[in-house]
Amino acid sequence: MFDSIPGYEGIAVGGGGAYLPPPMPSVPMPVPEQPSSHPEWHSNIPSISEGRARAAFEDYVSSKCCYSSAPVRDGVITNMESFNTYRYRLETFTEYRSTKLCQEPYTGQRVDAGIQRAPGLWEIAAQPPSYFTEHKENIRVPYTSSIKKCDPCGGLGKKPCSSCTGTGSKVCSECNGSRQRPDNESCNKCDYSGREKCSSCSGSGFHKCDTCDGKGQLLVYINLKVKWITERDDFVGQDSSGLRSENLGKVSGKELFRDAQINVYPVLGFPDVSVAQASERLIRDHQVKYTKNSRILQQRQIIELINITRVKYTWKEMPYVYYVYGNEMKVNADDYPATCCCSVM
Q: How many angstroms separate the Cα of 40 from the Cα of each of 201, 236, 309?
């Protein structure tokens, strides 16, 4: 039956589950508006004071159970240098759809298969809670629900007990089927029959079928799974501070620019040419990558200016360095000189 429904061919033999591409739009997509130059593009972040740098360092060390506070307390700051870097972020909010043949015990649910044509999987209405909020939704495809006999139990709603092979009784555990106890007395446990009632099925010889929950029938239908995902890519501008760029993934900076449309336009005229080039490249990549098996609902691009302060200090006449970065004043100190190994006894 399902092979005759356009868009669902092959689903009855396990062909579902893959993400299926959306149809070509019937009307042209709106042309994205080109962002203009922004005065905030040329702003700077004031350098942090030595006191704030030391306070951030102290908070960082106190959060580490195996770090001694001696370098914070006795270390001497010898140099502080600020490095401002740009981060470009492109977010593409996408919708994926896949179908799968499902079944559940039939308890009187609506049966509508064949009443009229089932809608295509991209024709069914589904709305995300909001843009850039990941969410999943399962929808029963209209006009695909039918009833069938439960195969595992043959429509009986029950299956033979595996403990007693459906007989309802087992060899007596007291006399081992001999009908006599070891002292040659008659076995009272099995009333001298050599068999006792099966405790697993209470002597009925059957168990309720788990597949159909004892109903004997199943409702079979096509399930549409809709998934909304935010695909994200970052580009961090050239930075000579020495801090690894992956450390910036969990901090925020001063927002210089934000643009949200169905399809965004590459940033033009940005003072850092590498950011403008990254914008063009990532937008092109997202259009190619996320229109094959999904639909783009919204895109958002953000440019932030992130402050990185490199702090050089000495402790016990040896030079060390740590970094304070982002609005959150996070600290990175890979060469912290006073660590120890902790063990839990």
A: 76, 18, 21
At 286, which helix (H) or strand (E)? helix 273-289
Of 26-35, 257-266, 296-305, 307-316, minimum mean pLDDT range: 26-35
Provide the residue count of the chain.
Answer: 345
| 159 — pLDDT class (breaks 50, 70, 90) | very high
Q: Coil, helix or strand for 268?
A: coil
Using a pLDDT cut of 90, give the percent of the chain over it: 57
- pTM equals 0.78
CA 21/CA 39 separation, integer angstroms: 41
Cβ partners under 8 Å of residue 188, min gap 6:
none
The dihedral of CA 284, 288, 291, 293: what is its sign?
A: negative
CA distance readout (Å), 299 to 41, 132, 262: 21, 9, 6
Instruction: Using alpha carbons, select from 40, 135, 42, 152 the residue that is nearest to residue 95.
Output: 135
